[in-house]
């Protein structure tokens, strides 16, 4: 016979085990959001330890270690925010999975930073502050530390809100605010600041216009033709050649400028040669890839898939080469002053500083990047491979044009401006076709004005949030930097 007490004990044990399993599930659910910050914190601490190890027992070890900690924090934020602009369109167009985009971006960003990141960087953020205004090394170190902390905090806040902002402009604002706090308004190069303010408007508008023009070209020459596949065989190699030319010029001018000194005319010549070669190579490849495809828009997406992935990878490489130095510039300046004792407009970046920047970007992208990738890729407007390709192509061309005009531009503003340009062009094009068709239909079949407004192809809430974040980036980073400088100065004093 079965003891009834034993049965009760088993039931009680089952209930207790059930409670324990529920507690374990709840603990796992609660701790999951803490994994990414935990890994990030471990990387930041490791960066500080590496800096301390390189400096040993010298008097400035603590200062350099603290700067390395904030430099690593800044690099993490660049990966979380800035890199999303390069990979967002490819992910939104379903040409890349989120995992594939993160892997390619991390690899290309690190390669760009370590291989072509350059040995020399302007530590005063492209001439924003006159070094003569901060002749005291201690004041200079505190100013650079404040700039590093404030720019990192601002980019972190923007990522949390879901707004892609310019890391370069955040650093510029941080340096400007700390410089004003340390040496007054006269220490700021206001002519350079005026150029940067102009780039807030020019670079996204230029990127948007170029992206819209390419999309209009693709619609006219490929999508709205009778034989779409034949048109694609003719024009897709041309677009690939243009892409190759733009990126070759982009990389030679921006990404590789620290390795080999190249002027704008030479970089354009390199671009033309590479573009022609890629055009000749892509003609038979596109012809072979298009065989057996149906005469519809879905088939066209296949032909643009690989060029889109390549363009996203090249954008990441160029971004790593060009923007990592901006992030670690203040850190390199602190290391130089602590080691040498004098203030220089340009310094050599130690290899361990570049490694912190490169790996920090990769970790930031892996841990926190998906949020902004989704925002840029799918939440502003709907993208397909053709539209996303136009965005990537516009980004490369806009940098070349802006360099020719002598404007300091932001890759973030250009890429997101390209997404806006594609979206607003689609709105305009859809409205034009609607009006043309409305002349042929009765009023009963037409959409009400409220319904047409509801079907806008660019989300206005995201548009306003992003533009507002762009406008206040420099002043917000400057104000934070000035406050942090006064705090550090009072503690140091």
UniProtKB/TrEMBL annotation:
It is found in: Membrane. The keyword Transport applies. This is Phosphate transporter. It is a multi-pass membrane protein. The keyword Transmembrane applies. Keywords: Membrane, Phosphate transport, Transmembrane, Transmembrane helix, Transport. It comes from the Bacteria. GO terms for biological process: phosphate ion transmembrane transport. One of its GO terms (cellular component) is membrane. The chain crosses the membrane at residues 34-55, 62-80, 139-159, 171-190, 196-215, 235-253, 259-281, 302-321, 349-368, 388-407, 413-429, 463-488. GO terms for molecular function: phosphate transmembrane transporter activity. Belongs to the inorganic phosphate transporter (PiT) (TC 2.A.20) family. Pfam families: PHO4.
């Amino acid at each position: 016979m079965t003891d009834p007490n034993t049965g009760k004990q088993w039931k009680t044990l089952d209930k207790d085990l059930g409670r324990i399993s529920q507690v374990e599930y709840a603990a796992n659910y609660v701790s999951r959001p803490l994994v990414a910050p935990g890994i990030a914190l471990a990387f930041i601490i490791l960066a500080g330890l590496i800096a301390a190890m390189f400096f040993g027992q010298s008097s400035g070890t603590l200062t350099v270690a603290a700067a390395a900690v904030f430099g690593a924090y800044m690099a993490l934020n660049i990966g979380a925010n800035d890199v999303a602009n390069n990979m967002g369109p490819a992910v939104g167009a379903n040409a890349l999975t989120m995992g594939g985009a993160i892997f390619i971006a991390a690899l290309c960003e690190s390669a760009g930073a370590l291989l072509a990141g350059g040995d020399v960087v302007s530590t005063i953020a492209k001439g924003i502050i006159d070094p003569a205004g901060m002749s005291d090394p201690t004041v200079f170190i505190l100013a650079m530390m404040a700039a590093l902390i404030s720019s990192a905090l601002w980019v972190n806040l923007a990522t949390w809100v879901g707004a892609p902002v310019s890391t370069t402009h955040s650093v510029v604002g941080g340096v400007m605010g700390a410089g004003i706090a340390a040496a007054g308004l006269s220490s700021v190069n206001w002519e350079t600041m005026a150029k940067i303010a102009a780039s807030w408007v020019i670079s996204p508008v230029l990127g948007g216009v170029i992206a819209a023009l390419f999309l209009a070209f693709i619609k006219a020459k490929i999508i709205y033709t009778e034989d779409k596949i034949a048109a694609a065989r003719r024009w897709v190699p041309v677009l690939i050649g243009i892409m190759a030319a733009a990126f070759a010029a982009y990389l030679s001018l921006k990404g590789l400028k620290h390795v080999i000194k190249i002027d704008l005319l030479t970089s354009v010549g390199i671009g033309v040669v590479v573009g022609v070669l890629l055009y000749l190579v892509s003609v038979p490849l596109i012809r072979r890839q298009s065989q057996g495809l149906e005469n519809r828009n879905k088939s066209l997406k296949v032909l643009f898939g690989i060029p889109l992935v390549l363009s996203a990878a090249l954008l990441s490489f160029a971004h790593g080469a060009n923007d990592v130095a901006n992030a670690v510039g203040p850190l390199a300046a602190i290391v130089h002053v602590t080691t040498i004792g004098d203030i220089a407009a340009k310094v050599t970046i130690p290899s361990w500083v570049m490694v912190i920047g490169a790996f920090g970007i990769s970790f930031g992208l892996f841990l926190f990047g998906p949020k902004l990738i989704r925002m840029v890729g799918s939440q502003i407007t709907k993208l397909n491979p053709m539209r996303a390709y136009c965005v990537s192509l516009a980004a490369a061309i806009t940098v070349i044009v802006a360099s020719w005009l002598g404007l300091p531009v932001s890759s973030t503003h250009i890429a997101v401006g390209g997404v806006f340009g594609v979206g607003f062009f689609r709105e305009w094009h859809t409205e034009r076709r609607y009006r043309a068709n409305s002349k042929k239909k009765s009023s009963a079949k037409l959409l009400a004005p409220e319904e047409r407004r509801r079907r806008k192809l660019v989300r206005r809430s995201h548009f306003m949030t992003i533009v507002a974040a762009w406008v206040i980036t420099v002043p917000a980073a400057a104000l934070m930097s000035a406050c942090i400088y006064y705090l550090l100065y009072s503690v140091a004093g």
